[in-house]
Design a protein that fits this description.
heterodimer, A: mainly alpha, MetI-like fold, 2 domains, 12 helices, B: mainly alpha, about 75% helix, globular
């Protein structure tokens, strides 16, 4: 934090504050409206003019659970996003470690190549991945989503871990090696404690990306392994006038990750920009 | 430490990523050259370039390419432009700045399917939607956004989602600015416009490049917003290349034509990526 200076022009500061608050409230309004609608009855939800004051009801949340088994989809979301993050970290961390501390001739090229695979549009792999999943009986299973999420996030994870590990002075690791530490000891006693921040923020980013992922979950999963993203998509029926329930389901789907995002915004930025903006 | 150890550690990530790239790509190339319909397994055989011809001469094709580029250009333009303005606006301390930050970044964490249905129903519905009520309140005729301006509606949803991202990056970059240089410029009597022109914007150039590149990666593949709202319609009015290929593959079950289209999408992404990696690549690796 920079130390606060006394504002030179109170009027300018006041204007700035008003404008900033107006913009922030305007952009946040759709989410706030979703939150309000979740606690209305279906009639109140479509009332003209819109109702601001009403007796809140929890009816929608019960209905969503009873009718479409919210917890089943929520569990799928938790399992797929957590396990894909763990799988991704297990693949990415050793690679990032090797590239950060043992730079070779090809390190830069490998990093750029990994970034370039992220440029491949997912739809380019849609038919083959769908066919492979179908042939191996993995269609609509958690396993398929876990593997696909981990692989699509892998380039970002390697880049992010790499840029964090590069901030650790290699001399510390060398000293441990000189003292006769094995690779496992070096990793456990030196790298993990020093790199924990980077590993944690990489994990956070992948949790968010997997939780919100919609392309693969819509195409590879349905009633059995479907995530919350697919549950919400099933509410897009043409008649669609059950907004209160839609809002309740949506609120439960986004609340964990939005709150999560508030606390980890800074790490998420670093991750998404491959460490290029700090 | 064994000399081959780094390679062993690198191998799993490089290997799986290579497989993840090469197997689907190989299969896509193969499928694109044969007759392959998921519903008619008896139709087989070499198709030559038929699939490509079918995909490219499909009247939806031109529309889809135009829509993809329009979507990319508009969202990047909106998010970078407004994102810069907001980041500059909240760069100085004011009461409640922390809360404003939290409110501003929230839309980024809303999953695409929720974003789409929230806008489609509660905001843009022509009768009960909030926008319709605002329009009525000021005496205007409510607009049926998704029917009359489908692509614009999708642009609004996607821009709403990505504006916080751009803002957050620019905010972070602004905090790393040289305070003394700014003070010096103020002492010398530089007005705010001059400070923006000669200090803030040059400092932000690199962040703008990064934002453009990241958004490009994610926006080429926009899918859920279209799938859950307009379904690509009416007609092809909001179909992008990703959605067109999806329609061929999983609605028409024509894996051959879809694969030909997928190769086109890969080509499109690579054209965009090559010049971008050149542009930004040297900035990314310190």
């Amino acid at each position: 934090m920079t130390p606060r200076r006394p504002a030179p022009f109170p009027v300018a500061t006041a204007l700035r504050a008003v404008a900033a608050w107006a913009v922030a409230l305007l952009l946040f309004f759709p989410i706030a409206w979703l939150g309000l609608t979740a606690f209305k009855t279906e009639l109140q939800a479509v009332a003209v003019p819109p109702q601001w004051l009403f007796a809140p009801t929890l009816e929608n949340f019960h209905e969503v659970q009873g009718r479409s088994d919210y917890l089943h989809y929520a569990l799928n979301s938790v399992v797929t996003s957590v396990l894909s993050t763990v799988l991704g970290l297990m693949l990415a961390a050793p690679a990032a470690y090797a590239m950060a501390f043992f730079r070779g001739r090809w390190t830069r090229d490998i990093l750029m190549w990994m970034l370039s695979t992220k440029m491949m549009p997912a739809v380019g792999a849609l038919v083959p991945v769908y066919v492979l999943a179908q042939k191996s009986q993995l269609l609509d299973t958690q396993a398929a989503l876990i593997i696909v999420f981990a692989l699509t996030n892998l380039p970002i994870m390697v880049w992010m871990l790499y840029s964090h590990f590069r901030d650790i002075p290699p001399e510390i690791l060398e000293a441990a090696r000189m003292d006769g530490a094995t690779l496992w000891q070096e990793v456990r006693l030196v790298l993990l404690p020093l790199g924990m921040g980077g590993i944690a923020s990489t994990g956070l980013l992948c949790l968010v990306l997997s939780w919100n992922e919609a392309f693969w979950s819509l195409n590879l999963s349905a009633a059995k392994a479907g995530t919350l993203a697919t549950l919400i998509a099933s509410y897009s029926s043409p008649e669609g006038l059950f907004w209160a329930k839609l809002s309740a389901a949506s609120l439960m789907a986004i609340a964990p990750i939005v709150v999560f995002g508030w606390f980890s915004q800074k790490q998420l930025v670093q991750g998404l920009t491959f460490g290029a903006v700090k | 430490m064994n000399r081959s150890m780094p390679r062993l550690l690198l191998a799993p990530a490089v290997g799986t990523l290579f497989l993840w790239m090469i197997v689907p790509l190989g299969m896509t190339i193969y499928f694109s050259l044969v007759r392959y319909n998921l519903l008619q397994p008896d139709q087989t055989g070499f198709a030559g370039l038929e699939n490509f011809e079918f995909f490219v001469t499909d009247p939806s094709f031109g529309t889809a390419v135009t829509n993809t580029l329009l979507l990319l250009g508009s969202v990047i333009g909106i998010t970078v432009g407004i994102g810069l303005a907001i980041a500059l606006l909240i760069n100085e301390p004011f009461p409640g700045r922390g809360i404003v930050r939290v409110l501003l970044i929230s839309p980024f964490f809303v999953m695409p399917t929720v974003n789409a249905l929230l806008w489609k129903n509660m905001m843009m519905n022509p009768i009960y939607g909030v926008l319709a009520q605002v329009w009525t309140a000021v005496g205007a005729q409510p607009v049926d956004w998704l029917t009359d301006h489908p692509l614009f509606s999708v642009i609004v949803m996607v821009a709403w989602q990505w504006l916080p991202f751009a803002t957050l990056i620019f905010m972070t970059a602004l905090q790393g600015m040289d305070r003394e240089q700014l003070e010096a410029a103020r002492m010398d009597g530089a007005n705010y416009a001059q400070q923006v022109r000669f200090l803030y914007l040059p400092h932000l150039a690199r962040s703008v490049a990064v934002v453009v590149m990241i958004e490009l990666i994610f926006l080429l593949g926009i899918f859920a917003e279209i799938y859950t709202t307009t379904g690509g319609g009416p007609g092809d009015a909001s179909t992008n290349v990703t959605f067109l290929i999806f329609k061929q593959a999983l609605l028409n079950f024509d894996a051959g034509v879809a694969s030909a289209g997928a190769l086109f999408a890969v080509l499109l992404a690579n054209i965009v990526a090559v010049f971008l990696i050149r542009l930004v690549g040297k900035n990314l690796d310190r």
